[in-house]
Specification:
146 residues; mainly beta; Deoxyuridine 5'-Triphosphate Nucleotidohydrolase, Chain A; four-stranded antiparallel β-sheet; three-stranded antiparallel β-sheet; 1 helix; 11 strands
């Protein structure tokens, strides 16, 4: 049985849906009155007209669409963007143009995808030391593996 996510759709577009049985995410669309031109290296916040109500154990992750990234150089910043279960505002997408050309977003364009994930709550236990590992504190390429 799938988890229920309530949605308010204030756009004129259909609610998000999985494109195939194997899809992990649902595409979300720009809900804008006029087109947005994004200059190279410019960031914009694009509204979707969507509002979610999720159970406490779920988060929504806003992720880039691969086709938009490779074809137009548009991707999402703050990726994945987290929508917390207690947020009730409009879902908006931070897009950046990484191409060398002006890119245009039209009303109804699929601008990102949303993946819903289970959240594991943790309890912190403060200690003076941590167990040693072979890796230790090495990070950011420390293992030398490609």
């Amino acid at each position: 049985m799938p988890t229920i996510v309530k949605i308010v759709n204030k756009s004129q577009h259909p609610i998000p849906a999985y494109a195939t049985a194997g899809s992990s995410g649902v595409d979300i669309r720009a809900n804008i009155e006029k087109s947005i031109q994004i200059q190279p290296l410019e960031r914009v916040l694009v509204p979707t007209g969507l509002f979610f109500e999720m159970p406490e154990h779920i988060e929504a992750q806003v992720r880039p669409r691969s086709g938009l990234a490779i074809k137009q150089g548009l991707t999402c910043l703050n990726t994945p963007g987290t929508i917390d279960a207690d947020y009730r505002g409009e879902v908006k997408v931070i897009l950046i143009n990484l191409s060398n050309e002006i890119q245009t977003i039209q009303n109804g364009d699929r601008i990102a995808q949303v993946v819903f994930q289970l959240i594991e709550k943790v309890e912190f236990v403060e200690v003076d030391t941590l167990n040693e590992t072979e890796r230790g504190a090495g990070g950011f390429g420390h293992t030398g593996k490609n």
